[in-house]
Please model this.
Amino acid sequence: MEQRNDFPSKYPVSYPVIGAGGDTGSWRMFRPEIDKDKCIKCLFCWIYCPDGVIDRDNLQINYDFCKGCGICAKECPRNAINMIREE
Amino acid sequence: MKKLFDTGCHVVAQAVKCADVDMVAAYPITPQTSVVEEIAALTESGEMNCRFLPVEGEHSAMAACVAAAAVGARAFTATSSQGLLYMHEVLHMASGCRFPLVMVNVNRAVFAPWTLWADHSDSLSQRDTGWLQLYCCSLQEVFNTILQAYYIAERVRIPVMVNMDGFILSHCRMIVNMPDQEIIDKFLQRQPNGWIANPANPSAYACVTGADLYPGFREELFNDTKNADKIIVEAASVYRDLTGFWDGDLIDTYRCDDADTFIVTIGSMAAEARLSIDLLREQGVKTGLIKIRSFRPFPAAALSAVLPDGARVMVLDRNYGLGTEGGIVFSELKASLFNRAAKIEIANQIMGIGGSDVNYQMMADAVTSAWDIRR
Amino acid sequence: MLEIRFHGYGGEGIVTLAEMLASAAIKTGSQVQSLPSFGVERRGAPVKALLRISDQEIYIRSECRQPDILVVLNQKLLASAIEQGIKENGRIILNHHQPLDCSYPLTCIDATKIAIDENLVIGRVPFINIPLMGAVAFEIDVPFEKLEQAICEKWTGNTGMRNAEVANIGYKTMQERRK
Model:
């Protein structure tokens, strides 16, 4: 939650900003990796990602915030996303 | 100035119309029903430029008002008794969100057993919800106070509940003088909004906060609720300057200047109690009346300033403080004067429960019997 | 301060009766308060209403136990109306077709007959409150034209005119009685 100064502090307002939930990338046990050869750019991974960490244009995953939940890999119709164990 | 002769419920509707309210959501309940009927009729005929939202219950009525306030609309609702109790959790939401709502509560005793008639157990049981509470003793005061409530709410960003006794005021017809609309508009100029929902700049509001943030918001609400007394005083005095009407600010006093004995009460009893004061004075008891107009914030300093050392104070409560030694106003008054308690005697009489009749003779008797004053 | 208490059965129109007298009294510059009985409203049940008229602001909010005038719309309610309280030197106006013995000064006005004769009847119900408006207005020194104005503001057009005519009959009947 970012504290902006638009309003006095009596108003419990918060704005959506990248990383509002903290350094969630550190929670990850398995890392999703997209196999560009199999990928048909259907964008299922982008639409299903609960954290919005997949870039719509170039399908880059932002590993600073990806928690490694694996939903993208489960939903990919071409099994193009592999979950790789983090070292 | 226009003269209105109508029932208390219809006077409420006229005040809401004069306050240029944008949205009303309400559910009918005796004795508030004709407030809702009249507002529905005025909006339907186009006489009142306002959205009327009929809802399926009071919980939704308050939720709808909260939503309206969240987009910057001036909103209103009215309820009574069980309806107010059903709103309970949303009352906390409205004050915690700092929305400047105004509600009229037509005081009615609470279930069980069922009853329809006036006492203050409905509103007083909501005293810790963060709403400011004002009590009225005449229809002119009801009209004035609804307008003042918007003035207050929109400046302190805390919702205000205006209370009037069921039937005794809600169904009584009295003359009300309505100030000209230009004067009301001047009094109720729209204030800059606090936070409002804006799709162009998305935000989340009142979402989960931990022990790091939550206490700060509550402390602000606590302080602002207490300090709202200054704005209540300001509202009353600005209103008087513009319209000439005066019903008191936090309190109103009658013949208190040289008094050593006092009646303290709220609601419609505070009107008739003037006659008790006159009666007691005729009998040689130096009595004065203090009407508590603002119960929240509780006017501790204002009361203390009026009461001299050695004062005898009779608190007349139209409610039971269940599990305490008397009425709720009595407990509040005692607590607020505790530091000078040795110098003030405070007694209590509960009367008028569930609409039982209270006349000035009974109120005077309460004073004379408490201190064994011979007449 | 003048206090009047009205007794009737639900549907006979005592609330309107009190309201119209109040509206007329306002036009004479008085302060007024009118209040229906506090009850669960049912047609046919005994109901009451009160009216207070004063030249000063009215602070009283309690029930009216010692009225100066009792207005009773039905002879069956007379005993109970008196029992509920009347001032020692109070007086009574009763809707009844013949004089009655009473411990208080009592004036009988046959408002039912006036309403029926004037065809002020809807369904089988005569509007007895209309002639009584006139009768009580005379009794409390409210000039008829003030009542007429109040009536014509409440009911527009022909209805108002008709009601005012019938109220005037009540007013004049009372005037006759007092001669």
Remarks:
- Chains A and C do not touch (no CB pair under 8 Å).
